[in-house]
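WARN no homologs supplied; continuing
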Amino acid sequence: MRSLLLSTALLCAPLLQAAEPSEVARGAYLARAADCVACHSTANSAPYAGGLQLASPFGTIYGTNITPDKQYGIGNYSREDFYNAVAKGKRADGANLYPAMPYTSYHLLKREDSDAIYAFLMTQEPINRPAPETSLSFPFNLRFGLSLWNWWYADELQLAPSTGKSAPWQQGQYLVEVLGHCGECHTPRAVTGALQQDKALQGGVLLGYLAPSLTAEDLLARGWNSGDLATFLQHGISAQGSMFNEMYPVLHNSTQYLPSSDHQAMATYLLGEQPGPTAQISTQPLDKLSDSAQRGRQDYLNVCAGCHGSEGQGVPHVAVAMAGNTTLRQVDSRNLQRVIDDGIAEQQFTGFERMQPMPALAAQLDDGQMRDLLNYLRQTWGGLPEDMSAEQVSELRSQAGH
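OK structure emitted
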């Protein structure tokens, strides 16, 4: 009888260790908030099967397979192994992960949240497929060298004290700083690749685009208020424009699935519980613009007005408005220049909201015309009176490969 009871207990042990449905459901939510699928999937692969190519200044890194496959995924990982990988940058075999895995933010992840994400991932279909081999130049291909880097930088991010802050502010802080790891793009990096925490969320250049500053002062200066910022995070589009470049997949993989209370919490954390006044910028008449900007008016009418309107009013479901557009207010106009030169593919937002493709105009505008057009847009609707020079435009285009 004792032997029978022992055998029964052993058979039941795996069942006793299985995750509760509530933990799996919370893990699904947390995986969305952490945007795990974005780096661990490709457009033509199963979710979490890895293979996404991640460009870095040091070479190419590939997102790994995090399905429960025992050969190529994390099927042999324990909860402890998973936590060590996510929060400490350590694989199960003890090797260091490259900080393309944002453990510099996830090191503040709550252990129960890591366990919930693990429980969710263990319910996914195992995909027996290896990710391509990461290829970095010497000496960055030597993983043991990351031990010193981690000693210096891995725990540098620390949360500001939350004493006296509201529950939405605290939730927003956790979503922005930890789960959403917004600083991994919106904080500038040093030559070592480490985040410059003394400039946290002040903006950083990523793959030739500017991930703009998310400080309250800069958000307010670019026309944001709490309601519109929450709307932008939920729907990808607001009175200030639409998501594009690297933020566009963030909407599709992550933020659109979060509850509206999370969007408001993030806005509350970024702008503050009692935000200051949002900067109001009026459209400047042509005779108040510089000579360069006045010349740019004709270029705008030639290549932009058909979609964005002769007075910058935009067309619903076709093209965003220039009046009130947050991108035009950025002193660093590389994003404005890049979208004009490179265009934007058709965009699909939540519900029935769409934006038609924006054509690439690099071949139609020389440096002088681009300078005049940028100056027209910046001065007319961006509240930026200074002229960009042809040399500045040429440098931006050169950096973008134009």
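The domain at 286-399 is CATH 1.10.760.10 (Cytochrome Bc1 Complex; Chain D, domain 2).
OK
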